[in-house]
Design goal:
Layout lengths: L1 H14 L2 H14 L3 H25 L5 H5 L4 H18 L1 H13 L9 H20 L5 H26 L18 H8 L5 H18 L5 H32 L10 H47 L5 H15 L4 H27 L8 H21 L3 H4 L3 H13 L9 H23 L1
Subcellular location: Cell membrane
Main location: membrane
InterPro entries: Brnchd-chn_aa_trnsp_Livcs (IPR004685)
Length: about 450
């Protein structure tokens, strides 16, 4: 039981970085009186899909994303694995962790004239610390599950306790922004993409399975069972915190206006209740959140790339990931979030369909044709959603992109909500089942 709790805490610690702190806060501010409905949508992609991703490894006897992706095809598996790990590694998630921890926790203490140089120095120290802990991946259960996660939860509870004992404002009368006015659930659903946790579930699967094995759990059926139990512990903690944070964001509207990102709001909330001590406390909370997740991401990235590209060793990949992240992290938090959205709109549907197909593989006997048709149809829709998420000024330069979006707007179901991949994936499943039926009939 104790070991399961440690792994559950590790699961939570791996997933819950600074982005998981700031996005629920932002949803709460923008959703206003519709916060509960928006939060439900956010929980589907924020905790539901990551949990299914963890379970998918156990039920499918897979130990890596390559194992899952191979059912579509070896080449697709390698391409998807490479892209996904670059996204949750040096291109987006890792740099965002460093930038978030600076902007939320430390920027308030730095004069505006020294922000750029301070960010540079901070990110250098941040990634140096991550490098130190990432050198020995076998210790990750101790670093994250036993030490950093419990400390993080205790400190965060202090701020949340103040927020609910002395609320800033009412939830029921809070103003509602943008898409949350008419489509609160679906807007929250797509906002959950920003956590990267469905992608992280596929990325962290290797680490979690290895941790199970290090505790002596070797047989696939027991690994699947313990993955589900430990995953549930981590996911439930995440869901509770997401809900509390989103409600805190909505209540903050009683004192503060809607900000550019939830990090700014969280800093305001901490200072409002506890003054300079609150700002210092938040800095420690965010730093712990970011460091523990960064250790997990850099470890997962390097271990996977070491397997995919064996000519380069593990430690070298850690250095490459952290050096690249150091450079990219100095672009700023708001800019990083904006840049990541088109990529997430492309990769998330592919990750979600792979998870769902892996969970339901026994229904269609893991027939490759079904994996391929679902993936192909989803790829078409996610590519269009990716184009739609590009900056408008960029789209307007290319008439072909404008024509594609005009067609999609008129003829693709759920396109305006960023969910056109859902009917496309269902259509791909239907086509795959039909082809599979005729193949089986022909072979008989």
């Amino acid at each position: 039981m104790k070991e399961r709790l440690y792994i559950g805490m590790m699961v939570f610690g791996l997933f819950f970085g600074a982005g998981n702190l700031i996005f629920p806060i932002q949803i709460g501010q923008e959703a206003g009186a519709n916060v509960l409905l928006a939060n439900m949508g956010f929980l589907v992609t924020g905790i539901g899909l990551p949990f299914l991703g963890i379970v998918a490894f156990g039920t499918s006897d897979s130990e890596s994303l390559m194992d899952l992706g191979n059912r579509v095809g070896p080449r697709y598996a390698k391409i998807l694995t490479t892209i996904l790990y670059l996204i949750i590694g040096p291109l987006f998630a890792l740099p965002r962790l460093a930038t978030t921890s600076f902007e939320v926790g430390f920027a308030p203490f730095v004069k505006s004239d020294y922000q750029i140089i301070s960010l540079l120095a901070f990110t250098l120290i941040f990634f140096s610390v991550v490098w130190f802990f990432s050198r020995k991946p076998s210790r990750i259960l101790d670093y994250i599950g036993k030490f950093l996660t419990p400390l993080f939860l205790i400190l965060l509870a202090i701020i949340l306790l103040f927020a609910f004992l002395k609320p800033m404002g009412s939830i029921t009368h809070a103003s509602i922004q943008g898409g949350y006015q008419n489509h609160a659930f679906l807007t929250g659903f797509t906002a959950g993409y920003n956590t990267l946790d469905a992608l992280a579930a596929l990325a962290f699967g290797t680490i979690i399975v290895d941790s199970m094995k290090s505790l002596g759990i070797k047989q696939p059926k027991y690994i699947a069972l313990e993955l589900s139990k430990a995953g549930m512990i981590g996911i439930v903690i995440m869901g509770v915190l997401y809900t509390l944070l989103s409600l805190t964001g909505t209540m903050s509207l009683g004192e503060f206006s809607v900000n550019a990102n939830g990090g700014i709001t969280l800093a305001q909330i901490s200072h409002y209740y506890l003054g300079n001590f609150g700002s210092f406390l938040l800095a420690i909370i965010v730093l712990i959140a970011c460091v523990k997740t960064a250790i997990g991401l850099s470890t997962a990235f390097a271990k996977t790339f070491d397997l995919l590209y064996p000519k380069v060793n593990y430690v070298t990949f850690v250095v490459i990931a952290l050096t690249s992240s150091f450079i990219i992290s100095n672009f700023g938090l708001t800019r990083l979030i904006a840049i990541s959205i088109p990529v997430l709109m492309f990769i998330y549907p592919l990750a979600m369909t792979l998870i769902l197909m892996s969970l339901g593989a026994h229904i269609f006997d893991r027939r490759p044709v079904i994996y391929r048709t679902v993936t192909l149809f989803t790829l078409v829709a996610s590519s269009i959603d990716c184009i739609n998420a590009l900056p408008k000024t960029f789209i307007q330069r290319y008439p072909i992109l404008m024509n594609i979006l005009s067609f999609a707007d008129h003829y693709l179901p759920l396109f305006r909500l960023g969910l056109s991949w859902v009917p496309f994936a269902c259509l791909g499943l239907l086509v795959g089942l039909i082809i599979s039926h005729y193949q089986l009939k022909k072979d008989a």
